[in-house]
Amino acid sequence: MPRPKPPHGTANCYTNLGCRCEPCCAAQKIKRAAHWQVHKEKEIVVHKQWIANHREQERYLKREGGRRERRHHPERSKERLERHRITSPEMYAATRQKNGNIRRARQLLASVGIPSEIAEWEAILQDDPCCYCGAQMEHVDHVLPLSVGGDHDWTNQTAACAACNMAKKEKPLLDFLLYCCVQEYVNVQPEA
């Protein structure tokens, strides 16, 4: 005997049958609001735990979402950029400077090529572990990032795993090491 269909204008009709009429949507909103009131604290804790366990995935999703947005809706991106330029000119100027430094460094590398001493150093680094956490080396990291004026020179390169390199971003070395110590301390502490 088949299951009876849920009545029209209910959250079950919205969920099970995919009905998107106004009464079913309203019923679904009411159901979600009631669920949120009951499970609010638990949902927040679960969400924070998920973000803590999936930091790299969360960063990737945010980055990809932004790229997709710029690709499919360039007019929205231009409007957002213009609003940002007007509302916070100092931050806008700093971002432009940073992106310009990165672009110039990449153009220089493309025109000159990688010098042999840097290529030799990168080959040596392939056998080293990550200098920050000891994991297997995946990236060659710039100790002083290119975006803040660091050189693409062998004296400014070190072995890093993907997680450490992505977490370091453009932090100075001492700030990043302090960040690592704090993260390690927080992860070791028993939950209250």
Report on the architecture of this protein.
With 192 residues, the chain is mainly alpha-helical. It folds into three domains: 7-35, no CATH class; 73-113, no CATH class; 115-186, Orthogonal Bundle (DNA Binding (I), subunit A). The chain contains eight helices and two strands; from the N terminus they run ααααααββαα. It has helices at 11-17, 22-53, 55-72, 74-87, 89-112, 116-125, 162-168, 173-188, and strands at residues 139-142, 157-160. Strands 1-2 form a two-stranded antiparallel sheet. Helix 4 crosses helix 5. The longest helix is centred in the N-terminal third of the chain and has 32 residues, at 22-53. It is elongated and about 75 Å long. The N and C termini lie far apart (51 Å).
Give the overall pLDDT as a whole number.
Answer: 81
Strand order of the largest sheet: 1-2
Structural class assignment? mainly alpha
Task: Bin the strand percentage.
Answer: under 5%
Question: What's the number of domains?
Answer: 3
- First CA to last CA: what distance? 51 Å
CATH topology of the largest domain: DNA Binding (I), subunit A
Query: What is the chain-wise order of helices and strands?
Result: HHHHHHEEHH
Shape: elongated
Q: Total helix count?
A: 8
Specify the CATH class of the largest domain: Mainly Alpha
CATH architecture of the largest domain: Orthogonal Bundle
